[in-house]
Amino acid sequence: MTYKHLTTRELTLIADFHRQDIKAYLAAKLLKRSTETVYRVYRFLNTGKTITQYLKQYQRNKRRCGRKPITLPNAEVDYITNQIRKGWTPDTIIGRNEMNISCSMRTLYRMFERGQYGFAVSQLPMKGQRHPNGYVEHRGKAGQLGRSIYQRYQDFPDYQHEFGHLEADTVQGKAHHGAVMTLVERKSKLEIVLNVHYKTAESVNYHLDQWLSKMPRHLFKSITFDNGKEFAGWREIANKHDIQTYFAEVGAPNQRGLNENTNGLLHRDGLSKRKDFRNLPDELVTQLMSYRNRIPRKSLHYRTPLEVFIENLTDAQLVYF
Q1: Which among 85, 109, 125 is positioned nearest to 261, based on CA atoms?
Q2: Other Cβ atoms within 10 Å of 92 Cβ, number
Q3: Pairing relationship of beta strands 222-225 and 244-247 according to DSSP bridges
Q4: Which of 98, 198, 281, 310 is 20 to 30 A away from residue 157, measured at CA?
Q5: Is the four-CA dihedral 90, 92, 98, 100 of positive or negative sign?
Q6: 221 class by beta-carbon count within 10 Å (0-12 exposed, 13-18 middle, 19+ buried)
């Protein structure tokens, strides 16, 4: 049962009843309140104090009510700070459970919202920006380039739970200068970033061919592209590496949601849209890719994409590497 505190109007009435020497139990009946509640105010007034003083004391007491703020040991604060720098979220820190934290996940998020211990919401990954319903993407599209994404579900009925399926896209820099190509393996969520420098079909094909040539043949079963013009040379890749290729519908990036979300995180990690990607150092791209693949994910039961990817490699493939 929720307790309802006395209102200012009720306190004024009780003070009037007290001055008129009306018994507390009668005042309680008139106010439809507990007799003890009214007696408490009467006893305070009997000491010679005023109802204004009672109200001020009540307000001071109320400020002290409720749960006391949770404080974390210095070791836990240092651990959380270090893990956030690595790209972890409060959810990952609690879920991974590498160190016992003296609060719940929600409480830890609240600490970030309040700025407690120097934590800041701006340190956490983006929540994403959604386009309005009915939004259609038109930039740099060449129409439907190849087989529809719906054919993929027929060719691979267990696609959602099967290892070896990639989603691909390109990310451009400032004023569309330069580009990198991103591929994400769906089951492990491992991200591969290829420094293609230019968003052209020739550059994309060259770097994708170089990368696939280093991989065991048939390690990857399919690649799902968007309909950007830079993927117009998909047949060469499909034929040379014996890999199935599919295309999302024109203007439907949500059909490659994992890839789109990962691209957004990549922007935050260091490949800002304010950078010119034409002369991007390969070392930086490799470093960012390694950083992202070592962050535990809730959807992977708080394992890292790299750990899950390695789990799905056979012994023969590991020897190959």
Answers
A1: 125
A2: 22
A3: parallel
A4: 310
A5: positive
A6: middle
Shortest CA distance to 195 belongs to which of 266, 254, 293, 295? Answer: 266
List phi, psi (to 5°) of 210. Answer: -60, -40
What DSSP character marks residue 216? P
Tokens of 37: 């509640």
Encode the chain (321 residues) as per-residue pLDDT tens digits: 456 788 889 999 999 999 999 999 999 999 999 999 999 999 999 999 999 999 899 888 888 777 777 889 999 999 999 999 988 999 999 999 999 999 999 999 999 998 999 998 888 876 545 555 555 555 555 556 678 888 998 899 988 889 999 999 999 888 888 899 999 999 999 999 999 999 999 999 999 999 999 998 889 999 999 888 889 889 999 999 999 999 988 878 788 888 988 888 888 888 888 888 888 899 999 999 999 999 999 999 999 999 999 999 876 655 544
Amino acid identity of residue 293, one-letter, is: N
Q: What is the DSSP letter of 274?
A: T
Record the tokens describing residue 57, joined without a space.
């004391």
Could you tell me the CA-to-CA distances from 133 to 130, 136, 248, 255 in Å, in that order? 9, 9, 18, 14
Rounded distance between C-alpha atoms, residue 251 and residue 246, angstroms: 15
Q: pLDDT tens digit string along 250-269? A: 878 788 888 988 888 888 88
Q: How far apart are the first and last CA of the chain?
A: 65
Tokens, residue 146: 């190849």
Residues counted in the chain: 321
Burial of residue 75 (number of CB atoms within 10 Å: 0-12, 13-18, 19+)? exposed
Query: What does the DSSP 8-state code read for residue 123?
Result: G
**Phi, psi at 169, each rounded to 5°:** -160, 175
Instruction: Describe the crossing of helices 35-46 and 51-63 by its angle, rounded to 10 degrees.
Output: 120
Phi, psi of 82 (to 5 degrees): -65, -40
